[in-house]
Amino acid sequence: MALSSSYSIQSQINPRLLQAVYIGCVKQNPNISAWPWPHFSRIEVACRHCGQGYYWPAFMNALEDLRTHMARPIIIHSAHRCALHNARVGGAPLSQHLKLAVDISLKRHNLRDLARTARGAGFTGFGFYTTFLHLDMGRPRHWFGGLEARTLWQTYLD
Ligand SMILES: [Zn+2]
Fold this sequence. Notes:
The protein is of the alpha+beta class. It has five helices and seven strands; from the N terminus they run H-E-E-H-E-H-E-H-E-E-E-H. The structure holds zinc ion (ZN).
């Protein structure tokens, strides 16, 4: 599939009309909406516990953009979480994971490139950890998952 055709589809999406739209369980409604993001499946960004999905085209556009510019796989550890799963894993009560956020593996990525490219793709929230990078499109902010993570990332951040 030509990537350019996928991107032309994405450019037709009006982000003001398609804000974060909750679509319920992805497993029950696999064809509820268009899915023009070739590098990611619905299941990869659905709740790991129940398969519930969260349809947010602008977020998926940013994720696809990140994948294209990094030119290597983006492995997602955790993405959307239903309220029950978020509570079970000790997520913040107002976690962006309740909408859509991704924790992506650092393996085989240059950390400086990854952080810069994610910012350029439109992500605004950054959680820096030793094994993964949290990305969301919530209030602009960043944090470190402990001293070890701060030490790891510090040299790569401007
Ligand atoms: Zn769930």
